[in-house]
Design goal:
This protein is an alpha/beta fold and 344 residues long. The protein is built from 11 helices and 13 strands. The strands form 4 sheets. It has a 5-stranded mixed β-sheet with strand order 1-7-6-4-5, with helices on both faces. The chain has a 4-stranded mixed β-sheet with strand order 8-13-12-11, sandwiched between helices. Strands 2-3 form a two-stranded antiparallel ribbon. The longest helix has 22 residues. Bound molecules: coenzyme A. Coenzyme A binds next to helix 2, helix 7 and helix 8.
């Protein structure tokens, strides 16, 4: 039995904000942002758009691709949605602060009438955590066959647009994959799908990437003065060091424990936080930077959406072939980290 990725889709808001657009309002420049992060632009949602709207668009995109490319027997995306058993959505910017889960809103609008739905809060590692959670839920029960795994964010709502060291980093977007439990082998010749996942957390770094206001530690109370909206605070240097270390460790762990070499891996699809993090990891591992797929220049850091958006793009551009061994790897608030080894 294997858990295979059937299709990958995405949604990106049409409004594109370039570094030069930001430099009109902030003391920054295209040169600084590109040289320190590799980012050239980001896409930002308009007022009135919530994360479930982006997630829903990515979901329909994924289901439609699966139908159009005849990867499933269903003939409409609506019929395919009705077959979903689980919807898992990784996000740090849900529609609502406490409840309901954004995944439930997506489930309803998709007409996924028999699906269970839940959100995953694992920062930018949300998609990797979500993929493993959905795979585990499918494996737990004979009758569960299909799941939709999403990463969706509107972090533009939670950054201080006057904080030049932070606001330049993030963009909005959503990505999704349709996964299915099949009878292909998970090991040995002809193995398919999700082979193994590593998940980890180092909560001692919780303060390094944090939104302090609004949770049970610092709740809003009746009568509180209206103040600055809750915003992300970050220790950029600490996160950077953590990220490089973990990307290297996860890749080395897969190589040694799965008895594979770098030549066996067709492509590494990392979380797109900063091109310099990826370059530093490649250097430490002694591998060419081109082994990593990087599209941060156009989208900036879309947090839990960055890996599924990258998978969609790589696949659409012909960069993935069925049977390729790929590795996804990520890190984020928590601090969390993780990676999955997948036969595409
Ligand atoms: N434009 C121009 N100058 C800027 C700037 C901007 N957008 N942002 C910061 N600076 C300035 C700082 O004020 C500082 O100036 P100073 O030396 O006069 O004090 C200088 O640039 C260096 O700042 P520093 O914070 O040391 O830069 P850095 O090289 O560490 O890069 C980050 C900052 C945020 C790009 C980098 O630390 C990073 O990417 N960290 C990881 C963040 C991340 O990935 N978070 C999400 C994880 S999921």
């Amino acid at each position: 039995m294997a858990i295979e990725i059937i299709a990958a889709g995405r949604a990106v808001p049409p409004r594109r904000v370039t570094n030069n657009d930001l430099a009109e309002k902030l003391d920054t420049s295209d040169e600084w942002i590109r040289s320190h992060t590799g980012i050239g632009a980001r896409h930002i949602v308009d007022d009135g758009i919530a994360v479930s709207d982006l997630a829903l668009e990515a979901a329909w995109n994924t289901l439609t691709l699966a139908v159009e490319e005849r990867l499933v027997p269903e003939t409409t995306a609506e019929d395919l949605a009705k077959t979903l058993d689980i919807i898992v959505l990784g996000t740090s910017s849900p529609d609502y602060h406490v409840c309901p889960a954004t995944a439930c809103i997506v489930q309803d609008k998709l007409g996924a009438s028999r699906a269970g739905a839940l959100d995953i809060g694992a920062g930018c590692s949300g998609f990797i955590y979500g993929l493993e959670t959905a795979a585990g839920l499918l494996e737990l029960h004979d009758r569960r066959k299909r799941a939709l795994v999403l990463g969706a964010e509107t972090l533009s709502r939670f950054v201080d647009w006057n904080d030049r060291s932070l606001c330049i980093l993030f963009g909005d977007g959503a990505g999704a994959v349709l996964i299915e439990k099949t009878c292909a082998p998970r090991a040995g010749p002809g193995k398919r799908g999700l082979l193994r996942t590593i998940l980890g957390s180092d909560g001692s770094g919780a303060e390094y990437l944090i939104v302090r206001k609004g949770g049970s530690r610092n709740p809003y109370r009746t009568g509180d003065p209206v103040e600055k909206a809750p915003c992300i605070e970050m220790n950029g240097r600490a996160v950077y060091n953590f990220a490089v270390k973990k990307v290297v460790e996860i890749i080395e762990q897969f190589l040694s424990e799965e008895n594979i070499t770098m030549e066996d891996i067709a492509r590494i699809v990392p979380h797109q936080a900063n091109a310099r993090i990826i370059q530093a990891a490649a250097k430490r591992l002694g591998i060419p930077e081109e082994k990593f797929f990087i599209n941060i220049e156009e989208y900036a850091n879309t947090s839990s959406a960055s890996i599924p958006i990258a998978l969609h793009e790589l696949n659409r551009n012909g960069g993935l072939r069925r049977g390729d061994l790929i590795l996804i790897v990520g890190f984020g608030a928590g601090l969390t980290y993780g990676g999955s080894l997948i036969v595409w």
